[in-house]
Amino acid sequence: FLQFVFHTYTTGFTLINGNGTTKAEEYSVQQKQVFCGLGAISYAACIGAVPIFFMNRYTLKSPLMQLVVRKLLPAPLLGLMSAFTVAVVRSPEFENGIEVMDRNGKVVGVSQKAGEKAVKETALSRAALFGTAFFLPAVFMHFVERANFAKTPRALASMRMMMITSVLAGMLPVSFSMFPQCGEIKRADLEPEILSSTEETELFYNRGI
Questions:
Q1: Scanning 11, 25, 128, 134, which has the fewest C-beta atoms within 10 Å of its C-beta?
Q2: Is 62 strand, coil or helix?
Q3: Are 135 and 75 in contact (CB under 8 A)?
């Protein structure tokens, strides 16, 4: 359930803050994104719960298994599923393309390649944000538990929450600055119809968040 809530929030954020270029008369892009988002949320939540399900189902209770499944595996899995939901929800951007502009802000065309680049960059930044924000605290808390630094479960939970919040706050500006908001793409990497419409060597697009 908590996995479902988390991915619902991040998918809604992605839906609101994507590139708004994509248009198609034969169907509603927004409607398609909502349906794709619901599917991606359900899939990501199930995948996130699979390791713990198997551990409990087959009573894999060894200390090493507990460390891997409960401490180390959820963070990279969460980062991977976060990138997956971004790619699914924003799939119309690389299917239909997004607007590319010259240095003066004049739109010179709609490019699928620019859309693919924008979605890929956003997915990577989202994976880095959530993967790091949950992996580093898990590693740190493992050593805290071994050293018996926190004496009570409440103190341990408070310390874990403080670590996650601190790393997440630190990673937010890092993930947003991994790729510029106004992305650049070389003219040679674009479609032939755009090549013929401008002499600019570099064009620009809105990456989204």
A1: 25
A2: coil
A3: yes
- Strand (E) positions, the chain? 98-101, 107-111, 182-186, 202-206
Expressed in percent and rounded to 5, the helix, strand and coil fractions of the chain are: 70, 10, 20
Phi then psi dihedrals of residue 201, to 5 deg: -85, -25
- 10-residue mean pLDDT series, the chain (209 residues): 90 86 55 86 89 73 74 85 93 88 89 92 93 85 76 81 88 88 89 84 89
Nearest by Cα to 35 from 15, 52, 53, 55: 15
Given a contact cutoff of 8 angstroms between Cβ atoms, the answer to whether 188 and 113 are in contact is no
The token duo for 55 is: 């551990």
Nearest to 15 by CA among 76, 92, 77: 92
What pLDDT score was predicted for residue 26?
44
Radius of gyration of the chain (CA): 21
Residue (of 20, 63, 31, 4) closest to 207 by Cα position: 20
Per DSSP (E only), the strands in 102-201 are 107-111, 182-186
**Cα 133 from Cα 166, distance rounded (Å):** 8
pLDDT at 28: 58
- Write out the two tokens for 161: 């929450």
